[in-house]
Amino acid sequence: MVRKASDPRPARRPEPRLPPLEPYGGAGLEPDGDYDGLEFRGADLTGQDGGGARFLDCALASCTLTGTRLRHARFLDSVLGPVQGVGTDLAEATLRDVEVTEPRLGGVQLHGAVLERVVVRGGKLDFLNLRTARLRDVVFENCVLVEPDFGGARLERVEFVGCAVKGADFTAATLKDVDLRGAEPLEIAGGLDRLSGAVISPGQLMDLAAVFAAALGVRVV
């Protein structure tokens, strides 16, 4: 596809190149743990506390993250997926050069987190909390986002490709070079006035016309 001058700048995608990994043989996560070059495969991490831990060159495959506490954790040059769970706490975490594939997660807490060069590919994320988070070079690809909350977040070079975005809230968010054209459907529940810096398609504009009119106090009769 030929890029037009009016198109937003594209996101830079991560290119994690994992070294040969060692199977993780520990009993469970530890707060402030240091995990380097490890593969967590089929691990049930339900309710465990890895707050402040660092994961470098790691893979989490077929893991359960229900109620897992990973606040302030750092995932660097790592691959996650498939992963599943409810109520995973990643508040104020850092994800840099990370691929997330086929997640099945509900109520993930990523408020105040930093996401840089991250791809979320496939799967479904329900009630994703990204309030006040910073997203730079992030791609949501072929996934379903149900009521994602971007309230107060900063989004720069963020793309939605082949996604279903339902009930997104952009209240008080700041957007720059955000490409929403690949979201089908695109449903926005709040923050229409914050879409400056985003690009939508003519078809999406028609679909959102009634919502825009309501936000402006315009009656269509």
Itemize the secondary structure elements and their pairings.
Blueprint lengths: L21 E2 L10 E3 L1 E4 L12 E3 L2 E3 L1 E2 L9 E7 L2 E4 L7 E8 L2 E3 L7 E8 L2 E3 L7 E8 L2 E3 L7 E16 L4 E17 L7 E2 L2 H6 L1 H7 L6
Parallel strand pairs: 1-3, 2-4, 3-5, 4-7, 5-7, 6-8, 7-9, 8-10, 9-11, 10-12, 11-13, 12-14, 13-15, 14-15, 15-16, 16-17
Describe the protein.
This protein is mainly beta and 221 residues long. The protein has one domain (29-216): Pectate Lyase C-like (3 Solenoid), CATH 2.160.20.80. 6% of the residues lie in helices and 43% in strands. It has 2 helices and 17 strands. The protein has a 17-stranded parallel beta sheet that branches. The relative contact order is 0.11. The mean pLDDT is 94.
Q: Could you name the key traits of this structure?
A:
elongated; 17-stranded parallel β-sheet; 5peptide_repeat; Pentapeptide repeat-containing protein; single chain; repeat; 17 strands
Q: Remind me, CATH topology?
A: Pectate Lyase C-like
How far apart are the first and last residues' alpha carbons, in Å?
40 Å
> Helix tally?
2
Q: Which architecture name does CATH use?
A: 3 Solenoid
State the fourth-level CATH superfamily: E3 ubiquitin-protein ligase SopA
InterPro entries: 5peptide_repeat
Organism: Streptomyces glaucescens
Keywords: Repeat
Protein name: Pentapeptide repeat-containing protein
Summarize the structure.
This protein has 221 residues and is mainly beta. The chain has 2 helices and 17 strands.
